[in-house]
From TrEMBL:
Organism: Limnoglobus roseus
InterPro entries in the record: Glyco_trans_1, GS/SS, Starch_synth_cat_dom
Name the UniProt record assigns to this protein: Glycogen synthase
SUPFAM superfamilies: UDP-Glycosyltransferase/glycogen phosphorylase
Stored Pfam families: Glyco_transf_5, Glycos_transf_1
EC number(s) reported in the record: 2.4.1.21
Function: Synthesizes alpha-1,4-glucan chains using ADP-glucose.
Family: Belongs to the glycosyltransferase 1 family. Bacterial/plant glycogen synthase subfamily.
Amino acid sequence: MSLKILLASSEVVGFAKTGGLADVAGALPRALAARGHQVAVVMPYYRCVRTSKLPVERSEHVIPVPVGTRTLACRVFRSMLPGTSVPIYFIDQPEYFDRDDPKVGRGLYQQSMPGGYKADYIDNAERFVFFSRAVLEIAHVTRFIPDVVHANDWQTGLVPVFLNEIFRAKPQYEHTRSVFTIHNIAYQGMFGREVMKLTALPGWLFNHNQLEFHGHFNFLKAGLTFADAINTVSPTYSREIQTAEYGCGLEGLLRQNRMKLFGIMNGVDYDAWNPATDPYLPKHYDVDTVFEVKPDLKAELQHKYNLPLEPKKPLLGVVARLVSQKGIDLILSAAPGFLDLGCQMVFLGEGDPEYHNELQQFRDKHPQQVGVNIGYSESLAHLIEAGSDLFLMPSRYEPSGLNQLYSMKYGTPPVVRQTGGLADSVVGATHETLQAGMATGFSFGDYTANALYQTIKWAVTLYRDRPKDFQQVVRTAMRQDWSWDRSAADYERLYERVL
């Protein structure tokens, strides 16, 4: 059955990106279209889209969008997802979206302040009340009335509410259903109760069963409450967020709604992440040639980080946001032990200034074994995935995770903590999983530096003393299929369920 699906996201890879949400919003529609569905995407018309060289055209549509006591007219722009015929619509409202400028520290949702910290824009609630309403208005004027509207994260949390409370009264929306995806429950869109005035929704909806959360207006709770189905980006994370440890205060609501809560693992765009074709790599390889080519890429990576060309030393790679969620504190605590094991380490990422300082001090103390690059480089990220011997990802929590999937494809076994999508995607190497030919990486459970150290010690033992076992892990990992077609099939079943 071919479905009409409208996917709403505050960012889409190729146009605007701050994290994994953009990757999903760019890849899932492409995979759904390849499965025969009619798909369209809608996002804000940010300055980065406006000023780019992307082929964006102005449409004939101007839509009225009520926000509080005002009705704003906004122009609709149009393009295609790169390499596809999937239309993407941009909501143009300069008052809300023509402000991002990295040169002066202004992002999509935040701006840099004196002292180096980032602060949310004070009108974020108004911006995304507007955007959520505009998503459904644009469907109306473009005559793309979806069977399913698929909203993502708090910025689109009001889409299911507006659908139920306002648009359901229109005959053409009678059969439209909503799916709401939580990419990270820690980000909820919490604002004062005055946001109710901006929504033009009836005041009685501001109650503890619907839009109110401890006296605040909660965008994420709105999406959870009103959507016909909820999903997270891995099965394990869907269970974890029903507990006090991971639910960020919404665990009770999620347990109440567990019958409509599902977990679907994110996929990988193997057009972009494939060592056999990767344009960022000086040499290509696959599962048959990995052990011939990888040493050259390792040497290239060591050269980039000014490390000695030591082919036999295990090289540990880290590409991550440098924040506590990613387990950077565990890595820093355990890292002296890794060096004692004879390892080299390379880091790429940016985040909390204190981690920047600690990593730079660590590198200065051990310049022959540690390389650090504060910032982000797409080409260097790909080289780290290809040139490292092991990839470190000991996250405190991880809704889905993508880097562990990249690492497996690149023959660099990931070292992960058993949480969220990491638990769902990586089979840790044990005597049993090695014997069964199932191991695709290394994993541990307790969030402690010692647990991470012992896991690296075990991985290094295989690397040095049991190379056949280590090579088996590499080959098994490279043969895994985490393509978006697999994930799209799961979303397809979810859409059919809500219909």
